[in-house]
Amino acid sequence: MTNLCMITGASAGLGVEFARQLAAQGQNLLLVARRAERLEALAAELAAKQGVQVLIEAADLSEPGAAAKLMQAVARRGLTVETLINNAGFGLKGEFAALDGQRQSEMIALNCTALTELCHAVLPGMIARKSGGILNVASTAAFQAGPLMAVYYATKAYVLSFSEALHDEVKAQGVRVSCLCPGATATEFATVAGMTQTALFKLAVGPEKVVADGLAALKRNQAFIVSGFQNRLFAFGTRLGPRALNRWIAHRLQA
Fold this sequence. Notes:
Helices cover 51% and strands 15% of the residues.
């Protein structure tokens, strides 16, 4: 079997940067996303530049049963997922009652359900081998409630809590689990979420440092990392400040 790193949401944003940094480290990759043409272009780029094996699987992980189908494809190809980067996810801006209900359910399915199912699929093998790692991508949104992005913030709180629990469960068995919590990052996320003009995304940073921080945290098996000094201050501040004040600030930044 070929040991590799599987990256979800690999066709844009942080997913592309994860692929580039890992390929530069000599890591063989399996790239997963909806847009096959983007995956093919990225795979060709990385194989040519870095000389690594780069495979692709086109999949919409927000669909019911998509994670199981993906893992069936992995098994058919005789692959072993040594590292899983659960990066796929999206957000939506607007009042909960006004946003499309189906689209919000798809957000939960992608941000939480698919992530959980993929962790459950790869962990038994990692535990048996006493090696492997999982990096789940959450957000600084995980640390508080988020008016105008209620479901998104709630999904990221789930990802952080879930990841910390897994980290503790498997750390004695040779398996690493970490959670990356970026702040506003200059990717397609803001466009999809309808947030390009918000005050929050005027502070957006590039994806390179965010990804490097996440990979470093996974290497040292750190339960979670908040990328960026200002974001760490923000995350710590939400623990000290009144929750009503935190909600007020989040509301204003996303208006």
